[in-house]
Design goal:
Structural class: alpha/beta
Number of helices: 5
Low-confidence stretches: none
Radius of gyration: 16 Å
Amino acid sequence: PIKAGQIDEMARLCELSPLPIVLDEELIPAKDKIGLLKTIKPQYIILKPSLIGSRQDCFDWLTTASALKMGWWLTSALESNVGLNAICQLTADFLAEFPFGKENPRFPQGLGTGSLYHNNVSSRLTMEGQEIFIRE
């Protein structure tokens, strides 16, 4: 809801807002994951793996968020079908690895950007309604 880098202001918003606050761009440059999440206390985080860094970086964010009872989404950031395929596989791994409970229910992930390109490589991924499947 505000420009990234305003930690104190974001923490105040998370504390006072009647609506859940989600951190997104704030995560990209962050080095102190635990400190950032403990200070701001968002209800959710959004990870864009291609902007966050490695699989391990995403895993570290999810481990920290889960320990603090924060929900999460993985989303794509305008990847081609190759990148989207990799993020779909990563999301499936993380959905299996991180437990979901009352405080972190399953949400649809934001993974539908591959169809934005007219010159995209072909893919076995297919959208059916709000779900992505691999065609056999």
